[in-house]
Amino acid sequence: MEDIEYYYRHFPVLESERLILRELTSYDIRDIKKYSADDRLYTYWGRQMSYKERDPSEMFRTIRKDKQPDCIRWGLEVKSTHEVIGEINLFNIQNSRMGEIGYRIAYERQDKGYCSEGLKRIIKFCFEETSLQRLELRAMAANKPSNRVAVKCGFTKEGTVRQGKFVHIYANYNLYGLLRSDLYSDKDVQTEDTVEQENKESKKMYSY
Questions:
Q1: What digits encode the pLDDT tens for the residues 108-135?
Q2: Whole-angstrom distance, CA of residue 135 vs CA of residue 176
């Protein structure tokens, strides 16, 4: 099990039944533009389309080599067609313990289970291969498909923020959370206290 920062340098390629979740590259520009430049995807996005989303080639043209990564952005490639149809992002990571999830799928590919399939695989990765203990996501209350994905993937609705700031606008949005302990029993999860106790015992063993 690694701290999530390890995977900033070693990108985690994941696989599900129909998808390969991998790093996006300049070879994906045409596919990215199909969804990122579609105005329909910004109805519940909390902001307007950026110039880089309108022209995805800008995303790769302006990458700074000295900039430290602070998120993991998976492209969702359909195995049968090798087409990238969307992305799932893990960001706002705090102390390698909790992180936030965001996702978007090409309009024509929605309601086909791709987003929930990809997110379930990422959840498994986060809780089985990293030190993350909590994932959370926010969805505008009016965005029914996004809320359905959250529930389908096991997230608990923790409340509704009324007229809170959602990216660049103010709207009602739902906050969802998922803990490692929601999916794994105490026997499968090492809490901080358990790890600390094991470290103390280990030091005692080698102190003689």
A1: 999 999 999 999 999 999 999 999 999 9
A2: 8
* Whole-structure pTM value: 0.86
Cite the beta strand spans of 50-184 per DSSP E: 72-78, 84-94, 98-105, 134-140, 156-166, 169-179
Spell 66-103 as b/e; 16+ CB within 10 A means b: eeeeeebebbbbbeeeeebbbbbbbeebeeeebbbbbb
**Looking at residues 184-204, what average pLDDT do you find?**
53
What whole-number distance in Å separates Cα of residue 79 and Cα of residue 85?
11
Provide the pLDDT for residue 168: 96
Collapse the DSSP code of 86 into the 3-class scheme (helix H, G, I; strand E, B; otherwise coil) and give the result: strand
d(CA 146, CA 44): 9
- Radius of gyration of the chain from its Cα atoms, rounded to whole angstroms: 19
* H-helix or E-strand spanning residue 14: strand 14-15
Query: For 18-48, what is each residue's pLDDT tens digit?
Result: 999 999 999 999 999 999 999 999 999 999 9
**Going from the N-terminus, what domains does the chain have, and what CATH number goes with each?**
6-205 (3.40.630.30)
